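Recall the central idea of this unit: under ordinary conditions, the amino acid sequence of a chain determines the structure it adopts. In this exercise we apply that idea directly, starting from the sequence alone.
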Amino acid sequence: MPTVIPFAKTRWLSILLGSLAFVAVGAVMVYEHGTVEQVIGGALSVLFFGFCAAVTVQRLLRGEPELIISHDGLQVAGAPPVRWADVRSVGIRTVESHGTRKELIEVVLHDPDDYVAGTSGSVAVATRMNRSTALAARANMALGFSPLNIAPLGRKHPLAEILTAMRAHHPALEITSLPDATTGPSRVKRLLKRVAVWTGVVVVLVVGIQLWLRATGDLSTAEVGTCVTMTGDDGDSVKVVGCDATDAKYQIIAQFTHLTQAGAQAQDPCTAHPTTEVQFWYGKAGDKGVAWCFEPIP
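Accordingly, the structure predicted from this sequence is:
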């Protein structure tokens, strides 16, 4: 009976959220037309993390198991199946980046080039890897890795357990190295790390949304002292702009919160500011919103 490691939906959702957050930040950098470096950096962020988001969405839609190990061979999600006859050995490969160490299972193949090209005996035409997987496989080979690697699949499925399952299904399999025997991080540290990661994602999302709203001139970002352009009497026709913008028409000189539209009309709070030309209420009908006093820009 095959050993099946199921689809890790939560992990892929977190990757998607993180990718979309960086796409939003990159889009704002491009939209605001800052320095050349900022625009280029923003564009690269949109392209790279947009690609990551697209790949993640495909993975979420497929929902296939992360890994299947059987007596015939193995199949990593998104990659074509591999027969044991095409596997030379498996072992742990340690990758160090920015002071952190990450272990993964490297599946060393007899003919890695044929595997990537989809011409090895184990790969049928119908199961050739898609473009994104092939791109990642070629990148691994360029860095000196095997094109087929198995990343950590969570605390419930340690790498040692995966290697044991491989040996159980194929006793003749050569295992060149085992996971580091040192004690891993405690449960508290893992929890704190997870909280830190999710907090970072939330912060990036919130900042990205705020930057996007400001960059697009959304009226929700208006405050006393900011300037607006106005082409009608509804919220969609009022945009926040720079006070030196050619289309800047009014400056906000006062703000009154927690007022319904009817309450704002009845109280007429802007009468306390004689230079007011327009009293503008913004909010959802029937709920409390904010009333602004618009003064013409000379």
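Residues 122-127 have pLDDT under 50 and may be disordered.
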